[in-house]
């Protein structure tokens, strides 16, 4: 196994200023905010759909709101981010070594962005 | 010129009352941990020319009480170490053994422990950890990494007590995998990986208990 020498490590430490060392904190905060937003959405969804079940004429305006690109895009972005980052963390805790790297976070984020784009294309702009 | 050189210049020429700690100047003793422009660094090994800002602000480490200027008291930090029994606890067989234990360089336990054992107790990870900031009493990255090394040492007999200490509310379950400790450790250690490993070990221990309960 290749290991850097102390001299190499000290030189690298002295010469490199860490870029965004607290990115993980922001990933975690976003995870919490998106989770809270999804819970709020789920409550709203249940309440409004229950009302629409009693009064079917309410369903049309509800679907118009949900299919609005901004609403649907925000919902899918929150859902995709929360799922992608959650899976990354579960894999990390399960011992998948590659998940500890920053690249894994950006990779999962890119995957989430693709899911948002495809779902927007299929549901809103079809 | 490093941040430490700058601090020494200030102390010698501008303000003789400036208080800060340093010792080895070679990134080995861990005495000169400070926050440079909000980021935890060892002052001795941070070149001023490498800082991408026009103004350099040096502050004491977070999450520890300030004694004077850049000097912090490490009592809360070492309290967390005490909680996991950082010292080697020899087993009965080891206490009476005539020969020292031999662990081969390529032994699995050595390969597990080696990447995590060079902690210099500088407190940088403790300061960088946002969970420590909001959850006083959380053991923090350094203490859990020390426990990780001891738990994987086959000569050590303090495994159960350490795992019990880690299995508490403020033990390793409190870690939210932010990873700032691993990003900023001057020795390149990865405490967040050690913490995840301890979580897995505790989960296996708990599941083992459930299985044993089912069998009895």
Q: Could you walk me through the main structural features you see in this protein, from its secondary elements to its overall organization?
A:
The complex is a heterodimer of chains A (126) and B (216). With 126 residues, chain A is mainly alpha-helical. Chain A has one domain (6-124): 3 helical TM bundles of succinate and fumarate reductases, CATH 1.20.1300. Helices cover 77% and strands 0% of the residues of chain A. Chain A contains five helices and no strands. In chain A, helix 2 packs across helix 4. The longest helix of chain A has 32 residues, at 23-54. Chain A starts with 5 loop residues before the first helix and ends with a helix. In chain B, 43% of the residues lie in helices and 7% in strands. In chain B, helix 7 (140-151) packs antiparallel against helix 8 (159-166). A three-stranded antiparallel sheet of chain B has the order 2-1-3. A two-stranded antiparallel sheet of chain B has the order 4-5. Chain B has ten helices and five strands; from the N terminus they run αβββββααααααααα. Chain B has helices at 3-14, 75-83, 92-96, 108-113, 124-128, 130-134, 140-151, 159-166, 180-184, 191-215; strands at 33-36, 39-42, 58-59, 66-68, 71-72. Chain B is mainly alpha-helical. In chain B, strand 4 (66-68) and strand 5 form a beta hairpin. Chain B has two domains: 3-72, Roll (Ubiquitin-like (UB roll)), CATH 3.10.20.30; 75-206, Fumarate Reductase Iron-sulfur Protein, Chain B, domain 2 (Orthogonal Bundle). Chain B is elongated, with a radius of gyration of 20 Å. Chain A binds chain B through residues 4, 9-10, 13-18, 21-25, 27-28, 89, 92-95, 97, 100, and chain B through 2, 26-27, 39, 42, 45-47, 50-52, 128, 130, 176-180, 182-184, 186-188, 190, 192-193, 196-197, 199-200.
